[in-house]
Write a structure and sequence with these properties.
single chain, 278 residues, alpha+beta, Jelly Rolls, nine-stranded antiparallel sheet, three-stranded antiparallel sheet, 12 strands, 34% helix, 23% strand, globular
Length: 278
């Protein structure tokens, strides 16, 4: 038993979990990516994604604050996703894949009357569109400039429901309503689009600005990446806590080394498209 545990400590996934939380390691990784690796992922020349500000200002905001909310999907693209998502499979995973619930479409989910807070959607008809959006020139340039290069893009379309559940139950269904920062790789960047729009009553994303650059070694970097709200509010200034709201199609880019969480939908559900670049 001890031998197996020791071996796990030297697995690449565990080393990423340990070292990916340190800002210096992430900076070194960016330099290595930029100078020694070439991306095999190519731009798509579509203009599905637009920005409100120049790219250099988006990058500046990413570096200083950890996020930028100045991008959006074209209305016709967002409307296309809205008109098709209900034909998706709605899948929930509980306690790290040990339990799975699957509904063949939105009507099937509604008829079930089961209180599940969070779903991942699978829709083969939307996959080609999501691939093109993720590789749009604007998003790829931002991701490459920030990460040094892009080796992989992960895509998820998620649906958060209005249900009366405690945070502990929501977390079991992978709804990340507790403060945390991501440590799944040495360097990564997320891009989110609120397909249905989001505010504090419909599952908006909350971030602690600049927390990707400012963490206490013993309070934040050692042990779990999840922290409680009261402790974080004692450490960070209240003006650093920011709820990212948006209309349908509005998006934001985030270095998820920042502390962040999803607010619980209380009035309306949330449909969100996310891309992870690493």
């Amino acid at each position: 038993m001890f031998y197996k545990r020791l071996i796990n400590y030297f697995k690449l996934s565990f080393l990423r979990y340990v070292f990916g939380r340190f800002n210096l390691v992430r900076k070194i990784r960016r330099v290595i990516n930029k100078n020694f690796f070439n991306s095999k992922i190519f731009y798509d020349l579509n203009d599905y994604v637009l920005s409100y500000i120049p790219q250099n200002e988006i990058l500046k905001s990413l570096v200083t604050q950890g996020f930028s909310k100045e991008i959006h999907l074209k209305k016709e693209i967002n409307d296309l996703i809205l008109s098709n998502y209900k034909n998706s499979k709605f899948i929930s995973y509980k306690i790290y894949n040990q339990e799975r619930n699957e509904f063949k479409n939105f009507i099937d989910l509604k008829n079930s009357k089961i209180d599940i807070p969070f779903f991942e959607l699978q829709n083969s008809n939307l996959i080609p569109l999501f691939d093109k959006i993720s590789r749009s020139k604007l998003l790829m340039k931002i991701a490459k400039d920030y990460l040094g290069n892009v080796k992989k893009i992960d895509t998820k379309l998620t649906y958060s429901t209005v249900v009366n559940l405690e945070d502990s139950e929501r977390e079991k269904y992978r709804q990340t309503v507790k403060w945390h920062y991501d440590v799944h790789d040495l360097n990564f960047l997320y891009i989110f689009f609120y397909i249905s729009g989001a505010d504090k009553y419909s599952g908006a994303h909350e971030i602690i600005k600049n927390s990707h650059n400012k963490k206490s070694f013993f309070k934040h970097l050692i042990g779990s990446a999840k922290k409680n709200d009261s402790d974080l509010r004692k450490f960070y200034n209240k003006e650093n806590f920011f709820i990212i709201e948006g209309s349908p199609g509005d998006g934001f880019i985030e270095d998820t080394s920042c502390f962040h969480r999803a607010l619980k939908p209380s009035l309306k559900p949330r449909l969100c498209l996310q891309f992870r670049y690493h």
